[in-house]
Amino acid sequence: MPLLGAGWFAFRELSSVRSARDSAAVVDRDTRALVRYTDLQASLLDERNWRLAVLGVQEIGISPDLITKVIGIDLVIEWESAAARVDAVAAEIDDPAIDAELAELRVDDETDLRLLGVRYRALEDELNVRSDALFDELLAVAGDVPDGAELIGTARVLEAAAATRSSTAQQLSSYFSARFSGAETAREEVAVLLQQQTVYDDAIEQIERSAESDSMAAEQLGVVETSADVTTFSDGVTQIIETTQELLANGDEGGLGFVTQDLAGVARQFEAGKISSELHLDLVTAAGNDVIISSQALTDRADAATRQAMATIGFLTVVSVAFTIALTRFIGQPLHRLSETAKLLRDGAHRDAVVLAGPVEVREAASALNDASTQLHLAERQAKALARGDLDAAVLAETASGGLGASLQEAVQTLAASMGEREEFRRRLAHEASHDGLTHLPNRKACLEKLHEALARTDSSRSDVAVIFIDLDGFKVVNDQFGHPAGDVVLETTSQRLLSCVRSSDLVGRLGGDEFVVIVDPVGGIDEVQALAERLLDAIGQPISIGKATVRVGGSLGIAMADDPEASGDDLLRDADLAVYRAKANGRNQVVVCDDELRSVVVRQNELDVAIRSAIADDELSLYYQPIVDPLTEQQVGLEALIRWFRPGGDMMPPDSFIPFAERSDLIVEIDSWVVDRVARQMAAWRSEGVDHLVPVSINISGRHLSVDAFVDDVMAPLERYGIDPALIVIEVTESALLDDLGGAAAKLQSLRDRGVRIAIDDFGTGYTSLAHLKTLPIDILKIDQSFTSDDSASSLVKLIIDTGHLLGVSITAEGIETADQAHALSSMGSDDLQGYYYGRPCPPEDITHHFPSALEDR
Ligand code: C2E
Ligand code: CA
Ligand code: CA
Fold first, then answer.
1. 207-260 pLDDT, tens per residue?
2. Ligand 1 centroid vs 824 CA: distance in angstroms?
3. How far apart are CA 448 and CA 463, in angstroms?
4. From the CB of 234, is ligand 1 less than 6 Å away?
């Protein structure tokens, strides 16, 4: 009986593990999860796009409200509703890891578009990995079950439907970016559109090929294909691709981007795109339902088969029981003892072999019982090994005799295999975290870890390790001309070539973008590394074929040897990077070793620091003044003080070559304070010369100075010393200085304003300020950067900035006016004041006085 029981039990367990019914359950679960993941991926893409759109228009200085007014699309509402949808789907998926990452994306007030894009993409990639794994599992399960062909078909349709949905969302976003961004981005986005069109067409073709004509997917595909919105949207996409290609063919780059004409058309296109996205999500759901239905059919078949198997087993059991009863009666007493032993065995209490005694039949039964005992014992040890996760345990390979032994062994193998797969999956995830998804090379983090290990190990003779930093030359050109897929081919090919040049003990990694690194370990000497670097350079430069085209890239390579016992892995990478920088400066496509000479460049920079300090002490600095003019009266209404450094011997150092450097230390605070003092003194001098209508003077203040506690005093003290009315002073700060708000910059500026000083934002349009932000900042004047006034194609944007600035009560000054045409254009767009070479170059104060006509008359 126990033997029979155990056999029956094992059979039932084994068959249940492998039954089609379980497969169907897996299919059902995976399919539902996949539909949700697709929804989440697409919704997340929507969220990212709208959020980036909001930040993007803010970045070029347009408030989202204005977009709503002009084209009727409320970016913020779209963003919020996309985010709400993401939340809803995430709640259904209910995965703490995803929730955590989402929460992190949300609380973040990051405004760097690229960084945000990268973070969203990281989560999207993770979702991709998961849904790919689900698809793989789904297809594997479908491939395992008998009659799984239909299931595989529906699963492939689901995969294709998911592709159409994400491709549609991607196209919607790229379309938007292409119409509202600069030429550079427009070109990139159109390349994406082209690529996504192919992805989309392939997926639709796959659905048409694989979907059964009576399936839900086929029906929904009909809806999609006859939808006017879908057609409108895809026509719009085709049109922007063709227009762009035409513009590029005619060399008319200026026509790209900022295509803000036909705004109503854009709005229509948006509505169509959104509806199209929804229809494609319905397509995914329909395809999911098809999968579930075909798996249901499998379940039904499996159920029928199970019922038949159970009936057979039942019959066999009854026969065995009857047979056993007959035997018991026949053999009686000896068998009774045997059965007592068997009971003990069943309860796990009996471990010793049964004494073989009694009639032949009983002895045979006892021997069988002993076999069963051995088998159960083995099963127990195998179960323990499995529970420990010890898949290599020798006991797992042991096989007991007989049919039961074979069944047990099979069950053990099945279990061990599935545990092994799980382990493999875990290993794969770990691999992905430390490796680059495209080239499968170790990423920056993994490289630094390896470098760290190598440096720790070779502590006694660290010159055993070297780093070769590789930056591709001409990669961007390939990307721009042939599109991102071509760029990917270049990166993959390059990584293969690098790998083929190094030894197995060396490590090739990708640091990101077109930057690679080779950690050479161990290394005999610099000559050896240099020879290797030359080989790498040669390999990189070999032609690469992409489709029918052949491209070539080059490389700038920098070598750093670990010869300084103090240097860390970061230091080594930085040194190698320094050498790359030099290789590029020397004309690219070469190898440069980081040596003391190169490091001395850094030292020379420190010398500049000393030179600036003595320039202040030795009075080598002076101020020039540039007029600011009211275009309507052509009267000078202000002056901007601009610093000049005349080095001994007469050379003039332009401010752009030392101010940015001084801004790296508190040196800039000294310079700024010197400027304020000098301006106040100059204004006092003008006054005593009889100028009775002093015009306000603008002073440039660096962001770093704003963060210093003494800033307000630094400005006010000279004004008080020379008796200058604070209303005659304008402080110019750049956008970034204000937005970082280090040390409460805004509050300090406000306190200056309270005393009458006015505040201007300098170089507006080049940073990240949005007009919406301006409302909350203490601003009186907005200076539109020169790059906008000289760019005709930006005129609608400039007009938008001027109008919105006026709405917010801010006065506008346009910088860099060089021609009468520009003066006329900016003035008619409403700019209050103008500044530029057209009205006057910066000049020494003695040349300025004649710009005060009233003062001259008074004399
Ligand atoms: P900025 O504040 O934007 O100053 C305007 C710059 O544009 C000046 O260059 C000016 O000479 C130049 N400019 C004015 N009109 C025209 C024009 O019509 N065409 C062209 N092409 N350029 C024009 P500069 O004097 O070389 O100053 C460069 C930058 O150095 C300034 O940019 C400012 O950021 C910084 N800087 C200058 N003086 C000081 C200073 O005293 N303190 C601080 N912290 N920074 C200063
Ligand atoms: Ca300025
Ligand atoms: Ca400026």
1. 988 888 888 899 999 999 999 889 988 888 888 888 877 877 777 766 665 554
2. 22
3. 17
4. no
